[in-house]
Amino acid sequence: MPPRNFSLDLGRTSNYVCKSCLAHLRPVHSQPPQWLARQASTARSLRSRTRKPAATALKDKDPDPAEIQRMLAEDLFNGSEAQSNLDIKYYSENIKTGERKSLQTNDEFGEDSTGLDHEVLSSIEDLEKRMLDTLKLINTMEKEGKKEKAAQLRKQFKTTIRAQYKGKVGPEGEAYGVLRIPGFSGPRNRVVEELNIFLAREKVLEKGVPSHKDLAECWKFYSSARKALATDWDKVPREVWDFLFMVLSFDSRDNPNRMQHIYVLAKDMQAAKVPLSDTQQLLAIEAMFIEGWEAEAIDAWKRAVVTIGSNRETFKPYYELGVRMCALHGDTERAQQAVDTLLKSTHPPNPRIIIPIVRALAAKESMLDEAWERYQDMRTLLGDTMTIEDYDEIIASFLTVGAVEQALQAFVDMMFSEAINIRGRDRLPMAVGNHFFTGKWLKRLIGAGDLDGAYKVVTFLQKKGIITAPVQLNGLIAAWMRSGAAENVEKAEKVAWQMIQARLDFVELRKRESVSNLTLYNPLPNAIDEQQQGDEAESKCLTRATAETFSLLAENYCSRRLHDRLQELFRVLDQAEIMPTTFLMNQLIRSYSQAGEARKALNLYNRLSDEIGVQPDGHTFLTMFNSLSVNRLIKRIPSLSEQDVSTGRELFKDMVQAKWEFDTPELFGQLPRTILFSMFKAKDWVGAIVACRAMRQIFGFHPTDALLVELVSGIGSLQVKTKRNTLRLTEGSRIIERIKHGYRKELIEQGHPGEEMTSEELVEENHAVFEQIVFMKAKVRQVVLEDLNKWVGEASKEMGVYDIVVKGDQEVIRECMKFDRQAIMGADSE
Predict the structure, then answer these.
(1) I need a surface site. Which of 17, 196, 396, 821 has the fewest CB within 10 A?
(2) Which residues are within 8 A (CB) of 750 and not within 5 positions of it... i.e. 6 or more apart?
(3) pLDDT for 189
(4) What are phi and psi of 206, to 5 degrees?
């Protein structure tokens, strides 16, 4: 790749090849070619004792064909009789024409391999040498302290290069000049050439912003070339260092390892004895701190107070960096000195620089008051410009260390424009001490993910006489469980059982008729067990459990397959005098099914739905159909399959009569599919036809092509990617196409024009294909219509859909619809 400054004179259409690329094109042989390794004659062997042969001399380095030719020619003209027959010639072959040309001299050989004549190659080598010497001279002058002269010489050097070679010199060429690292060539230094290719791109930066690809490849090529460059750091021009620093230090989401890259690059620049600018030094110090060298970074920051700290351009970022580092390191005294220096300067900083100091002071219990004073200073400086995010930072700083009172006061400051002081008060004022106000705070903390802080607030409010509402504490329990962390799940379970115990205590007190003054959120003091005293009594949760609390625990136990704990929870539900909900019933049925106790699941469903009056929903029936033996057992048992036929029909009847509606698209996709597959597995062919016809009316269900292929193939899911299933799916698709072809042929015979079918006709086609699949599975070739209607009538009565399937009573259909009836009725009235 040519240097960037050669782009105009030599152009893209020239035959120019630089030395590094030429080195890559030359063949590299680990051993000499066979024609060099052949046995020498007797005379040559005698002469080799006094002079090393040409082939042996080339073993230690990459062979240059021109040099080989010269050495062999020298041997030929030494007068040896045995060598007189050795004649080596080089030819150049034109690939297109096949014409060969003999190469006689080194110049001819070099011109053929590079495309450039000898004079051009010599000029390029001389230019690279002079450029390298000039850069070394500039670096030497900078090391000796002659920075002004070095800068003047560097500027003159770049101006001369631009005047002679009027091409692009890289992104922001006026600032970076020649972006090339000379002096590294050959196969061993190929990584440096790859870095040079990256530097020579016409658009490494676009509008001053590096792309994600630029950032990734910049570090990729530089990190690969570091080892080679370390052998001679002096060859790396200052412009290259500045350019690499500019790209790798770019602050962007696409540069997640920014500080690590800055740290490595700064170390390399230090090893190369390249002075860093003030801005680069600040970034290097910050990178050092983040990479774990905290004490060393702070020491470097202290030493730079005279240079960087006194510079008007870097004064503000220098002290802001010191505030952040010292605060994180725990040196609050020096951090406060730095922030005071900033605040007293003629260029005051953003007052939000005080937030790290508040966080550091709050971490020390003895300095809580001082942290509060610093917060007040920041609030005064910001005034009306203080944002909700600023308050969130302050609140989190206090909550993290358990200073809930200060955190609550900051939240009060955020919510009320007038001053309301709550610090040091045993009872909170009515404007603050109510469930609506504290509920907003808890909701905000839970939404922000500060779950531990939210529970600290719950405990603090309880000590102030404010019992958290169940809906708020249930939200915290749900958030703990959603996190999936074992520690959080344990906390959620502990708090939930405390709430259940509070509910049991309340029920017990109510039975004793000693709670006449008991209110929902202000229980009597004797609601706490008299045996619990002191801190233990204060830490006990007084919020009473609700059905939602039981539901959260039930779902967690069911997903974790803790069947015994779920049974215990259901027994306690009765003691707590809370009516079981549909969700609780579904979880317990699902747990019984997972435990292999399908009969208990069915008994529980019947008891809860018939005796207690729990209203089932679509999820209940989905769970019940999944509990059938044909869906649980790998090996089918005929006796259980026969029971599944009657059980399935009874469940379908209950499903139709129950008052529920589809609440999720997932349920709409799973329930009809599970019902049909269950009947297919149980070989209830007539029941499958009745179910499909009924679900068409009350579900708005139509079998899709994918479902038809699954049913005819007998595969539980199209997502099971095995070779056997793939073959079955392929065969199933062919069967469906054959059935559709016969159906459409009959339509044409009946007078159908044979053109493209409408959407309604396609729906009818899929229903007809479904019934053909049922006949095929039942091994019935021809079905008499009267017999089919008789079978359907009997089965529809057993399944409770006779008026829907046989009579087509629209009033009954509207009553049994499982989606938005009002929308359907409104559409009909229109």
Answers:
(1) 821
(2) none
(3) 84
(4) -120, 115
